[in-house]
């Protein structure tokens, strides 16, 4: 679907020589399931200055001109669940790995990421990217993982008491982390203490629903985001997680989705990671583009009025749940768990988007979750997530319309991050993707 630019035609626009302009480009602004045809998008410094019909813009000599004829310009993508290389796991080369990952993100059109297990060096990397010393996406990050019990990893922070929780939150806030990360091994008591300390500090809580905490408890606590759909399977029907498949009640599924919406809790399902686990793909290296997102059958059409339970295979239940959350107004993020479970950095986001569409979302719904929705979640909707005047120039130029086919989002001509333009060939060469 296309529409003409609704901006009023006033005086002829003249660009300054220091500006950059995408000319004759089709704009996917991400404020609706529409395309603005034949636009000129003007970039000054790091930000979008204005958007207007190309017939109303005069390009001065000296302006950097990017030909967008036949191409589509959309906001940069946001991978909302990633992991950078930890020094504890990669002591000799974590810096070079993280610079490579940063380039791989950009090469996939990802201009913002949410790092879900923080450490001091990721703050250093964020500062280097912000200064322009390192090329990469904007980084939002939790502090170290807060964990306990048998689920504790060597690089997690053990939280058992109220004093542990208060100290953990105080440390993360003072060091400049954006949120508190909760993991599955926390006791119900430690989880509650962390939630209270975080609420007092003003930091949001992102992460798993602990094994000892029911989903209803996490929703009541207003945990800002839930990762990997943790807690949902047990809340709806425990046996669906068995390898032999299982059943669920469509009415319970809808009720849980509505409760999530009412609590204002967001979900970052990381379907590409879950599908890898369910199908044993994690036992082999997952190469770029290797994930098969095709589904041989449609999902069961289970009506609320149908007294029978719905049969479902375990690897498909997350997609059914994703669709239910979306249909009932619960908010979604797009993330991959790159690095955490053998999922490749960067290109795996396109597998994730394809799974959203396979689950029944439209390309616009999937892409909006990965752009404007992510910005809203982070409280940065005035900064990025849409192609609009005043927003940061975090943009992807595509060879085909992503609203017609979500896989077109990976047909990149180039990426602009904070007003810096890189061709796809430059990014892939720098990241050594080919």
Write the layout of secondary structure elements.
Blueprint: E1 13-14, E2 20-27, E3 36-44, E4 47-53, E5 57-58, E6 64-67, E7 72-75, E8 77-82, H1 94-107, E9 110-115, H2 120-131, E10 138-147, E11 157-158, H3 162-175, E12 179-182, H4 188-201, E13 205-207, H5 215-220, E14 225-227, H6 232-236, E15 246-248, H7 250-263, E16 266-268, H8 271-278, E17 310-312, H9 317-327, H10 348-358, H11 363-369, H12 372-377, E18 395-398, E19 412-417, E20 420-423, H13 424-431
Parallel strand pairs: 1-5, 2-6, 2-7, 8-9, 9-10, 10-11, 10-12, 12-13, 13-14, 14-16
Antiparallel strand pairs: 2-3, 3-4, 7-18, 15-17, 18-19, 19-20
Overview of this protein structure:
This protein has 434 residues and is of the alpha/beta class. It has 13 helices and 20 strands. The strands form four sheets. Strands 2, 3, 4, 6, 7, 18, 19 and 20 form an eight-stranded mixed β-sheet that branches. Strands 8, 9, 10, 11, 12, 13, 14 and 16 form an eight-stranded parallel β-sheet that branches. A two-stranded parallel sheet has the order 1-5. Helix 1 (94-107) runs antiparallel to helix 13 (424-431) and helix 3 packs parallel to helix 4 (188-201). The radius of gyration is 22 Å and the shape is globular. It starts with 12 loop residues before the first strand and ends with a helix. The relative contact order is 0.16. Mean pLDDT is 87; it is low at 1-17, 240-244 and 280-301.
């Amino acid at each position: 679907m296309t529409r003409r630019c609704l901006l009023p035609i006033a005086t002829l626009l003249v660009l300054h020589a220091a500006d950059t302009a995408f000319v004759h480009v089709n704009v996917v602004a991400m404020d609706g399931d529409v395309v603005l045809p034949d636009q000129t998008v003007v970039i000054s410094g790091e930000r979008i200055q204005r958007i207007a019909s190309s017939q109303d813009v005069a390009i001065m000599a000296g302006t950097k001109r990017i030909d967008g004829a036949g191409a589509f310009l959309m906001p940069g993508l946001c991978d909302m669940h990633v992991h950078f290389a930890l020094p504890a796991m990669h002591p000799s080369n974590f810096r070079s790995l993280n610079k490579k990952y940063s380039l791989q993100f950009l090469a996939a059109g990802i201009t913002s990421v949410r790092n879900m297990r923080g450490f001091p060096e990721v703050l250093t990397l964020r500062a280097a990217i912000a200064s322009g010393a390192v090329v990469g996406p904007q980084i939002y990050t939790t502090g170290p993982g807060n964990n306990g019990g048998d689920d504790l990893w060597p690089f997690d922070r053990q939280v058992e008491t109220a004093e542990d929780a208060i100290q953990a939150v105080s440390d993360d806030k003072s060091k400049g982390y954006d949120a508190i990360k909760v993991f599955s091994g926390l006791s119900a008591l430690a989880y509650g203490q962390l939630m209270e300390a975080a609420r007092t500090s003003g930091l949001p809580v992102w992460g798993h629903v602990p094994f000892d905490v029911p989903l209803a408890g996490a929703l009541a606590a207003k945990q800002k985001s839930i990762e990997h759909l943790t807690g949902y399977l047990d809340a709806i029907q425990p046996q669906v997680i068995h390898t032999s498949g299982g059943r669920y009640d469509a009415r319970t599924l809808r009720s849980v989705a509505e409760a999530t919406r009412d609590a204002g809790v967001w979900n970052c399902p990381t379907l590409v990671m879950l599908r890898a686990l369910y199908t044993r793909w994690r036992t082999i290296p997952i190469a770029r583009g290797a994930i098969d997102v095709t589904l041989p059958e449609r999902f069961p059409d289970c009506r609320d009025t149908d007294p029978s339970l719905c049969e479902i295979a375990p690897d498909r239940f997350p997609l059914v749940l994703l669709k239910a959350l979306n249909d009932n107004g619960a908010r979604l993020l797009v993330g991959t768990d790159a690095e955490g479970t053998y999922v490749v950095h960067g290109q795996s986001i396109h597998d994730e988007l394809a799974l959203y569409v396979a689950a029944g979302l439209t390309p616009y719904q999937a892409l909006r979750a990965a752009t404007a929705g992510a910005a809203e979640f982070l409280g940065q909707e005035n900064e990025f997530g849409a192609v609009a005047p005043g927003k940061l120039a975090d943009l992807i130029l595509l060879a085909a319309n992503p609203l017609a086919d979500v896989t077109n989002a990976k047909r990149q001509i180039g990426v602009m991050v904070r007003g810096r333009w890189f061709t796809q060939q430059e990014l892939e060469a720098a990241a050594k993707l080919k």
